[in-house]
Amino acid sequence: MNWKTIFNPFERFDDKLLLIIGLLGTALAILMGCWTGTFFSSIYKVNSLEKVTLQAVAIPTLISFSSAILILFILGKILNSKTRLIDIVNTVLISQLLLVILQATEKVAFIKEAQERLISHQKNLSETLPVGDLMVTIGMASFALIILIYSITLYYNGFKTATNIKKWQHIVLFAAVSLIMTLICQIVLSKYF
């Protein structure tokens, strides 16, 4: 295994295997959402729930993933008529897989406590800075940023592999469509969930 495999598993692994992993990852995201009280309001956006039920977690998560798949498949067909649905499904599902790790951090008590103490310090600046809490918060933010960058890299590489895009105009169009799709999905789902 080399760096290319890590950053673009879509070229190396069988599409059916990636689909199975992606579907298992989606099921894990839903189960993790039930445990942590979170759901995906769009790809790359995890929200908290007040009343946690399997339905309240599964429906918006599945809608957000499905809408991303549908929009990217349409864009893929426009850019390359040979784009296959399974490749787009794999792109979306595999890219979201690592975000389940970030969902799990909602239940790690010392991270939440460190963040809360840091926030309370902002209200009373006369106290000494809780350096340990600051380090935990910075470490968690750095970890989340690394996961997010890696996930976006998988998302881009998966779409690029599925559609064989090479022109910078197509890449810009992909980025714009992805951003708009994510924002619209968040707005629509936040009204209902």
TrEMBL record:
InterPro entries tied to this protein: Yip1_dom
**Does the keyword Transmembrane belong to this entry?**
yes
- Where along the sequence do coiled-coil regions lie? none
Q: Membrane-spanning residues where? A: 17-40, 52-73, 85-104, 134-156, 168-189
The record lists the organism as: Chryseobacterium shigense
What subcellular compartments does it reside in?
Membrane
What residue stretches are annotated with the Yip1 domain? 18-185
Pfam families associated with the record:
Yip1
Q: Report keywords, A-Z.
A: Membrane, Transmembrane, Transmembrane helix
Per the record, membrane topology reads: Multi-pass membrane protein
The record's Gene Ontology cellular component field reads:
membrane
Protein name as annotated:
Yip1 domain-containing protein
